């Protein structure tokens, strides 16, 4: 390839990377955590206190609930499984945005007793942060903005590959650890970038679609479908065959429905059943579940007729989809890591964290490049270098500390404050803004290790909270009912960050005074 | 900057963003009207838009100059839309 072409793509890589890098750091760090979304919510939510009605008694529970609760007749969920992660056997929501579902259990007098559940919504917070990179305002708007950011990300990937291709064979596994720090960072950046390139490519392209799909459908409707797309949606709705029959009818018991579905799809593991219009001739059940051998859109589902027990729609049942649907499911699965079970989830977690490193190191490279130029021109650090260094340190470490504080506080504040979601966001923003302000006031070098220690402390607060709950039962908190994974993960993360903090401090004391990373030269940006 | 490649960044980026998007819509339309019907085809059609769009946007820096970029992409648009309208009229 001609050298001027490569130079052009170098410019593309630098600018797309610099503009998108910090947003992508937040999206990747929160995205890596969101792989374990259910476990996070479970960590911050109090253990189940209601007795779990057995599945054999579910028909009675359903009958009594829909007799007493009209909203539940419209739609309710029967949760399968017996583990601690099951919130209650039967729940329903008052609207699509209801985050505190009602739950029913059998009572002594032939009715149901209803309680309102208050899950901590922590997984939702992390997921919203992942999709919008924490941009204030409407999450959907933030997600659309991130669709645009992801376009820059794709450009950065393509141009990055074009840049390294000529020297790829020679330099890929060369990790030149030595006095040339810029060279070392570049090697690390290239190694991580190339090794995880397929992952990044899929993430980037799918992120553009997830961010902009509503807009693209709108335009396609006009240009390609002559305004008929809505009709296609309706015809293809999985519920298209239901409605309009009216009148009541007895439903088959859930266990019977499940055994019929199992006969049709033996490898499908159901986790929940969404009933609509229960007790009528239009009653339908959307059976959600997973088949880890398949590429899934998070989960798959089948629609059954609750009266006849027939599988009405298997278009989104993993392993039973047609070519079009299976292809789209593959795109979802490759973004979310929803295939192959826990090993793939951990792999995605590691790749997500490595991706965050890629953006952090990319910014450092830009700063180091600028530094050399500053020296060549005889001046000190330019303002843009100091600003970018402070912004990078403040945003990245503030994001890490902010998420950790929001996680730990969710357990403390549960049941104490009314709007836990608002507190999660408030604490996150408070940490982020404070960290960025601190980085600007102290300079990047000092803030680099000071904020690292802040992130360590915030992350340690997560396992310490559980530890305190266990040692001091009087606090009214809860410890490890849902497993110890989150606490161990946070502990490991804190140890890793402490090592980074020590390295950053050493560097701050050993760098030449004209470096943006030297303590001596660490001036406000 | 260079004699052989006339950069004109914004002209190129605009060509890639606008004509790349319209071309991607047409390619997705060709898929819609050229492939057999099936459940979720409209979803795959929507998914096709983004890779085509980004492919064009990534390649737009390879053109010798910005006029060539607009001419080639404009021509590709005309061809793709002609094919889509032809296929659509055959199906309808």
From TrEMBL, chain A:
<dbReference type="Pfam" id="PF03929">
    <property type="entry name" value="PepSY_TM"/>
</dbReference>
<feature type="transmembrane region" description="Helical">
    <location>
        <begin position="346"/>
        <end position="366"/>
    </location>
</feature>
<keyword id="KW-0472">Membrane</keyword>
<feature type="transmembrane region" description="Helical">
    <location>
        <begin position="144"/>
        <end position="169"/>
    </location>
</feature>
<feature type="transmembrane region" description="Helical">
    <location>
        <begin position="12"/>
        <end position="36"/>
    </location>
</feature>
<feature type="transmembrane region" description="Helical">
    <location>
        <begin position="422"/>
        <end position="441"/>
    </location>
</feature>
<keyword id="KW-1133">Transmembrane helix</keyword>
<feature type="transmembrane region" description="Helical">
    <location>
        <begin position="387"/>
        <end position="410"/>
    </location>
</feature>
<protein>
    <submittedName>
        <fullName>PepSY domain-containing protein</fullName>
    </submittedName>
</protein>
<keyword id="KW-0812">Transmembrane</keyword>
<feature type="transmembrane region" description="Helical">
    <location>
        <begin position="190"/>
        <end position="212"/>
    </location>
</feature>
<dbReference type="InterPro" id="IPR005625">
    <property type="entry name" value="PepSY-ass_TM"/>
</dbReference>
<feature type="transmembrane region" description="Helical">
    <location>
        <begin position="453"/>
        <end position="472"/>
    </location>
</feature>
<feature type="transmembrane region" description="Helical">
    <location>
        <begin position="478"/>
        <end position="501"/>
    </location>
</feature>
From TrEMBL, chain B:
<feature type="transmembrane region" description="Helical">
    <location>
        <begin position="44"/>
        <end position="63"/>
    </location>
</feature>
<keyword id="KW-0812">Transmembrane</keyword>
<protein>
    <recommendedName>
        <fullName>DUF4175 domain-containing protein</fullName>
    </recommendedName>
</protein>
<keyword id="KW-0472">Membrane</keyword>
<feature type="transmembrane region" description="Helical">
    <location>
        <begin position="12"/>
        <end position="32"/>
    </location>
</feature>
<keyword id="KW-1133">Transmembrane helix</keyword>
<feature type="transmembrane region" description="Helical">
    <location>
        <begin position="69"/>
        <end position="87"/>
    </location>
</feature>
């Amino acid at each position: 390839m001609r050298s001027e072409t490569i130079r052009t793509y170098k410019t593309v890589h630098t600018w797309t990377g610099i503009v998108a890098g910090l947003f992508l750091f937040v999206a990747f760090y929160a995205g890596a955590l969101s792989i374990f979304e259910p476990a996070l919510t479970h960590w911050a939510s109090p253990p189940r206190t209601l007795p779990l009605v057995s599945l054999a008694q579910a028909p009675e529970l359903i009958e009594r609930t829909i007799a007493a609760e009209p909203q539940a007749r419209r739609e309710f969920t029967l949760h399968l499984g017996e583990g601690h992660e099951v919130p209650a056997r039967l729940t329903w929501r008052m609207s699509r945005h209801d985050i505190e579902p009602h739950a029913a259990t059998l009572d002594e007098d032939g009715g149901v007793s209803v309680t309102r559940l208050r899950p901590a919504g922590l997984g939702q917070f992390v997921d919203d942060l992942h999709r919008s990179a924490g941009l204030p305002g409407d999450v959907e708007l933030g997600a659309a903005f991130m669709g645009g950011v992801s376009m820059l990300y794709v450009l950065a990937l393509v141009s990055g590959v074009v840049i390294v291709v000529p020297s790829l064979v020679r330099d890929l596994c060369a990790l030149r650890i030595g006095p040339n720090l810029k060279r070392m960072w570049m090697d690390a950046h290239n190694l991580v970038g190339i090794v995880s390139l397929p992952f990044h490519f899929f993430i980037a392209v799918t992120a553009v679609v997830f961010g902009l799909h509503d807009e693209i459908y709108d335009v396609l409707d006009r240009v390609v479908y002559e305004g008929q797309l809505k009709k296609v949606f309706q015809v293809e709705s999985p519920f298209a065959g239901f409605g309009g029959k009216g009148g009541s009818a007895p439903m088959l018991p859930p266990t019977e429905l499940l055994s019929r579905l199992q006969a049709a799809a033996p490898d499908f593991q159901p986790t929940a059943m969404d009933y609509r219009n229960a007790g009528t001739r239009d009653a339908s059940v959307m059976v959600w579940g997973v088949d880890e051998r398949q590429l899934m859109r998070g989960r798959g589902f089948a629609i059954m007729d609750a009266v006849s027990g027939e599988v009405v729609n298997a278009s989104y049942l993993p392993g039973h989809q047609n070519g079009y649907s299976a292809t789209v499911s593959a795109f979802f699965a490759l973004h979310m890591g929803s295939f192959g079970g826990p090993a793939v989830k951990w792999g995605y977690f590691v790749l997500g964290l490595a991706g965050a490193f890629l953006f952090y190191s990319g910014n450092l490279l830009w700063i180091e490049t600028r530094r050399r130029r500053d020296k060549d021109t005889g001046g000190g650090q330019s303002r843009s270098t100091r600003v970018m260094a402070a912004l990078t340190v403040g945003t990245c470490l503030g994001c890490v500390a902010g998420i950790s504080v929001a996680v730990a506080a969710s357990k403390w504040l549960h049941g104490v404050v009314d709007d836990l979601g608002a507190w999660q966001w408030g604490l996150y923003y408070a940490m982020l803004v404070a960290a960025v302000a601190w980085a600007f006031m102290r300079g990047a070098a000092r803030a680099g290790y000071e904020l690292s220690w802040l992130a360590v402390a915030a992350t340690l607060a997560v396992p310490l909270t559980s530890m305190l709950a266990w040692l001091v039962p009087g606090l009214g908190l809860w410890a490890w009912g849902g497993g110890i994974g989150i606490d161990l993960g946070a502990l490991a993360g804190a140890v890793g960050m402490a090592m980074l903090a020590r390295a950053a401090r050493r560097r701050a004391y050993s760098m030449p005074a004209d470096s943006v990373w030297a303590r001596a030269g660490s001036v406000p940006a | 900057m260079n004699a052989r490649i006339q950069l004109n960044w914004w002209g190129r980026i605009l060509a890639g963003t606008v004509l790349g998007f319209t071309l991607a819509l047409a390619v997705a339309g060709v898929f819609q009207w050229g492939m057999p019907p099936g459940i979720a085809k409209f979803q795959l059609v929507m998914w096709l838009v983004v890779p085509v769009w980004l492919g064009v946007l990534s390649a737009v820096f390879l053109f010798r100059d910005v006029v060539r970029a607009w001419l080639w992409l404009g021509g590709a648009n005309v061809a793709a839309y002609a094919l889509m309208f032809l296929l659509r009229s055959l199906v309808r």
